[in-house]
Specification:
By secondary structure, the protein is mainly α. It contains seven helices and no strands. Helix content is 63%, strand content 0%.
């Protein structure tokens, strides 16, 4: 009987690595151009979104302040101040618009027309009257406004702040 010799470890050879079946580099120039166009479009889209996000900063800040005012409505000591600040907040939002309309001197019907013109949907019937009452009525009358009407004013104001039209 003859024994087959066992190969030694020094006789092993390294296997050659196979060529990968895929290549990440585009095979033709057309694909490279398409990739550059898609990346360029994505960069332009991102820049426009960033600019819009920066431009709408005043909306986000106004909504935060509106949430603070809604929270202050629950406290009887802060309720009057929170109600009185709502028309002022709407005026500050209008003054902060990027197209900078001249609303600083608007009042009464002209101010209501401006709000209605920039609103995405028609404003409710009592919105103008409610804002006028909150802004100019005596304290006792403002505090006597029913909670449902106050909630409606704040909800309408929130919708206006979120979605008013800006001519840019």
């Amino acid at each position: 009987m003859s024994a087959t010799p066992v190969p030694g470890i020094d006789q092993l050879k390294e296997l050659a690595l196979p060529v990968p079946p895929y290549n990440y580099f585009p095979q033709t120039w057309g694909w490279l151009v398409l990739l550059l166009v898609v990346v360029s479009i994505a960069l332009v889209w991102g820049a426009l979104k960033w600019r819009r996000w920066q431009r709408d900063r005043y909306r986000r800040e106004a909504l935060v302040r509106l949430d603070t005012l809604v929270g202050a409505l629950e406290d009887a000591g802060q309720r009057l101040a929170a109600l009185r600040e709502l028309p002022e907040l709407l005026k500050r939002v209008a003054l902060s618009m990027p197209d900078a309309p001249s609303v600083a001197r608007l009042g009464g019907q002209a101010w209501q027309a401006f709000l209605a013109e920039r609103a995405p949907a028609p404003l409710p019937e009592g919105f103008a009257k409610g804002l006028f009452t909150i802004a100019y009525a005596p304290d006792a009358r403002v505090l006597a406004i029913p909670d449902a009407e106050v909630r409606s004013l704040f909800i309408t104001s929130r919708h206006w702040i979120e979605a008013h039209r800006v001519a840019v």
